[in-house]
Amino acid sequence: MIRVNFVTTDGQKIVAEGQPGQRLLELGQAAGMPLEGTCEGQMACSTCHVVIGADWFDRLPAAVEDEEDMLDLAAGVTRTSRLSCQIVLTRDLDGLDVRIPDEARDMQGR
Ligand code: FES
Fold first, then answer.
1. DSSP code per residue over 31-59
2. Cβ(35) to ligand 1 under 6 A?
3. Which of 6, 50, 87, 105 is the most exposed place for a label (fewest CB within 10 A)?
4. Number of domains in the chain
5. What does the pLDDT look like over 25-62, one tens digit per residue?
6. Domain of 86: which CATH number?
């Protein structure tokens, strides 16, 4: 099991357990996070945008250029932003901290 600590826009902490090979996007969705993932991982939307904990960011494989380009268009982007559809869970990521950006809430129309 790989534990991922999600923090919602309300500051609520939710721990989700994933499997190696699972995408962070799918784990987040399964945990009830408001990640639409509209393009299903084609890097053609940014509705799967998450903010990775600073301690973890450097431990992830670097983003490819297409991901960087998409993130440039994402609302509320930060230095440690990533597209969750591009992050595949591995055992090394056990304990990963992931925050849902505020703007995700607006996309949900809430
Ligand atoms: S699901 Fe569209 S970029 Fe990740």
1. TT-----TTTTSSS--TTEEEE-HHHHTT
2. no
3. 105
4. 1
5. 999 999 999 999 999 999 999 999 999 999 999 999 99
6. 3.10.20.30
